[in-house]
Design brief:
This protein starts with 40 loop residues before the first helix and ends with a helix. 25% of the residues lie in helices and 24% in strands. Helix 3 (59-76) crosses helix 5 and helix 9 (267-276) packs across helix 10 (278-286). The protein has twelve helices and 17 strands. It has a six-stranded mixed beta barrel with strand order 3-16-13-15-14-17. A six-stranded mixed sheet has the order 5-9-4-10-11-12, with helices on one face.
């Protein structure tokens, strides 16, 4: 999960679940990808695309994009760009102008940006949303699924028996047991069976364990509380166990498909199977040992990887090695609803490689429907400050 994802977690048509903050269509064909040796946009290759004016950005699309771009500018001006495409100062003119831009919003993008194709430019996009489920501040009958905050004993350390030569990167997540040994943290089954009871970590209680399972995969969401208020929760951390997408498992077992006795390959179909087969469904969910911890959020939207709210039909999750965080992105897909201007403000564990995107659709039933059916292919262009492509290709 991203920080939302940290988020992070795309709901998709053949749905399901691949990284902390998303529900990914594991059973769809592999997204178009550049060779595995490419580890950044610069390595994949950058070529000029059409003029920004030629994209014919709509006024409302441009207005929403400009708002999200302004919110992203602090990150653009302080972060090093992992793609290798831009430098912090490249964005300054556009960011300075964006804060008080008085002209037509589409002309802003035409004035300050050019389009770039990364690798082949062949794009694959899924969708994610902010789920809303029923919950309560205090435990009561019918509202007994804990929403846990980040535990104090969840930490990173090297196991004592791991040789020094193997201790590279960040230490793994785990905890110290009563004997002082560093061990793996509790997995989903252990937590569901009460490993954290009495820890006073409960932020709230959810009414439906199945809905809560999917909210964890999304990485953030809203609890419609029994007192009539709404509580927004966001990703605070994860237990260190690997993610297993149950959609892929179900397809391997022949449970998903169009045949007799099979369930639709969507989030709705998977939920239907779990509800109609509660014991098998519980065991299936427990194959995903990952557990997400939450924090209560304030503000007008769930937070993406940049620590700012992601917004419906404006924010898109990307692989930050291939798209600069905060950069505008133009998508032209075979799913017309996702065509248009997006701003790169989030990421996700399954959003990897060039031209891989996860579009955000907000909250509500229509958001669930659109995100749940989003599996689009087409073309992507990254909007970069003017002069960037020539500079890169002259080096």
């Amino acid at each position: 999960m991203s920080a939302l994802a940290k988020s992070a977690i795309a709901l998709c048509s053949l749905a399901l679940l691949a990284a902390c903050g998303r529900i990914i269509p594991e059973s769809t064909p592999t997204a178009p990808a550049d060779p595995a040796s490419f580890t950044s946009a610069l390595m994949a290759g950058v070529t000029s695309g059409p003029s920004v004016a030629g994209l014919r950005i709509g006024s409302e699309d441009a207005r929403a994009g400009l708002r999200s771009f302004v919110e992203s500018c602090p990150s653009l001006l302080r972060r090093d760009d992992a793609t290798g495409l831009t430098r912090q100062e490249d964005w300054r003119a556009a960011c300075d102008a964006a804060r008080s831009y008085g002209g037509a919003p589409e002309s802003f993008f035409e004035t300050y940006f050019e389009t770039a194709r990364i690798g082949s430019g062949e794009a694959f996009a899924t969708g994610y949303f902010e789920p809303e489920i029923r919950g309560c501040r205090t435990r009561k009958p019918g509202c007994e699924v804990p929403v846990y905050a980040l535990p104090d004993d969840l930490t990173r350390a090297w196991p004592a028996d791991m040789p020094e030569s193997e201790r590279t990167g960040r230490p793994p997540l785990g905890r110290f047991d009563d004997e002082g040994n560093f061990v793996r943290y509790y997995d989903r089954t252990q937590i569901e069976e009460g490993a954290l009871e009495g820890s006073r970590l409960e932020l709230a209680w959810a009414a439906d364990p199945v809905e809560m399972f999917f909210l964890q995969i999304q990485g953030s969401g809203r609890l419609a509380l029994d007192d009539g208020t709404v509580m927004r929760i966001g990703y605070a951390g994860q237990n260190g166990h690997g993610y297993t997408g149950i959609g892929g498992v179900m397809r391997e077992r022949g449970l998903l498909g169009d045949g007799p006795g099979q369930y639709a390959g969507s989030m709705q179909g998977i939920m239907q199977y779990i509800r109609e087969n509660p014991e098998e469904g519980r065991d299936l969910m427990r194959l995903n040992k990952s557990w997400i911890f939450f924090t209560e959020l304030t503000g007008d939207g769930p937070l993406g990887s940049l620590g700012i709210p992601v917004r419906r039909e404006s924010s898109v999750a990307v692989d930050p090695k291939f798209v600069p965080y905060g950069a505008p992105v133009w998508l032209d897909l075979d799913r017309d609803v996702a065509d248009g201007l997006w701003i790169a403000q989030d990421t996700g564990g399954a959003i990897k490689g060039a031209n891989r995107f996860d579009t955000f659709w907000g909250a509500g039933e229509d958001a669930r429907t659109i995100a749940g059916g989003m599996s689009g292919r087409g073309t992507a262009y990254i909007l970069l400050p003017k002069g960037t492509v020539d500079r890169l290709n002259s080096q």
